[in-house]
Design a protein that fits this description.
- The chain is an alpha/beta fold.
- The protein folds into two domains: about 70 residues, no CATH class; about 130 residues, Glutaredoxin.
- The protein is elongated.
- The protein is about 35% helix and about 30% strand.
- The strands form two sheets. A six-stranded mixed beta sheet has the order 5-8-7-6-9-10, sandwiched between helices. Strands 1-2-3-4 form a four-stranded antiparallel beta sheet.
- Helix 3 links the parallel strand 6 and strand 7.
- About 25% of the residues are buried.
- The termini are far apart.
- The protein contains six helices and ten strands, in the order ββββαβαβαβαβαββα.
- Helix 2 packs parallel to helix 5.
C-alpha cells in the first residue's frame, strides 16, 4: 500500500508544533500522527475533520497576520528606533549657525569615529536635561547614510531627544567650514550662540564649569 508522509501544524491541546502524518491515499485514511515536541507519542489515529483542518488554517493565518502587524507597528512614526537624524547641506548649516536664538544654543559637531565626541555629546545631553536653560543641537559630520547608526548611538548616549543633523554635503571640508570658518577639523567641536549675540567656539571636551561660564555670559 502506498504511503505518504507529510508534516502539518498542530495547535491542539495535545501538541503545539509540527505533526507527522502518514497517509494512505488508496484507502483515504491516515495511519498515525506524531508530535515534533513529543515524537514518541501517537496523538491521533483518525483523520481530523474538515472543520478542524479549516479552523487550524485560520488560526495559523491570523497568527502570521499578527506577527506582520507587530513588525509594522515597531517601524511606525514616533518609534524611538526610527532614525531622527535630518540631512543638512553646507548652505543649510551656515543658515542654521547664523540664526539668532531666543535662548542660548549649543551646537555640538561630532562623528562616529571620534571617541571624545561620544563623551562630549553624553555630557552635553546631561547638562541640557539638568539645566533646561539652553538648546542643544547635534551635527554629525558623517554622511546622512549613517543616520540609523547615529540615531542608535545617540540613544545609547541619552541624546536621542535633541535636534540632530548629519552631512548631506559631498565635500566634508565645505560642510565643516559652513559650521565654523575657524575650525581646523579637530573634534569634538562645540559652538555657543548666546541669546545676546555672543558666540564662542572651542575644540575638546566641554565640562560643566565651562558651560556654566558660557551661560553666565563669560567666555
Amino acid at each position: 500500500m502506498t504511503r505518504n508522509v507529510t508534516w502539518e501544524l498542530s495547535l491542539n491541546h495535545e501538541c503545539v508544533g509540527w505533526v507527522e502524518r502518514q497517509r494512505y491515499p488508496s484507502a483515504e485514511v491516515d495511519g498515525y500522527r506524531r508530535c515534533s515536541t513529543h515524537p514518541t507519542s501517537v496523538i491521533a489515529t483518525t483523520r481530523p475533520s474538515r472543520f478542524f483542518r479549516n479552523f487550524s488554517s485560520l488560526i495559523f493565518t491570523v497568527a502570521i497576520a499578527l506577527m506582520l502587524a507587530s513588525n509594522i507597528a515597531f517601524a511606525a512614526p514616533g518609534d524611538s528606533r526610527k532614525p531622527n537624524i535630518q540631512p543638512l547641506t553646507a548652505a543649510e548649516a551656515k543658515a542654521l549657525i547664523a540664526q539668532q536664538p531666543t535662548k542660548p544654543r549649543i551646537i555640538a559637531a561630532w562623528s562616529l569615529d571620534c571617541s571624545y565626541c561620544k563623551r562630549n555629546v553624553k555630557q552635553l545631553a546631561i547638562e541640557a536635561k539638568k539645566r533646561h536653560s539652553f538648546e542643544l543641537v547635534l551635527i554629525a559630520v558623517d554622511p546622512i547614510e549613517e543616520a540609523a547608526t547615529l540615531s542608535k548611538l545617540q540613544a545609547q548616549l541619552g541624546a536621542q531627544s535633541f535636534k540632530s543633523y548629519a552631512s548631506n554635503e559631498p565635500m566634508l571640508e565645505r560642510f565643516r567650514y559652513a559650521i565654523d570658518s575657524t575650525w581646523g577639523g579637530e573634534m569634538p567641536r562645540t559652538l555657543f550662540i548666546g541669546a545676546d549675540g555672543a558666540r564662542y567656539a572651542t575644540s575638546g571636551l566641554i565640562n560643566s564649569e565651562v558651560l556654566g561660564k558660557w551661560l553666565a555670559g563669560g567666555k
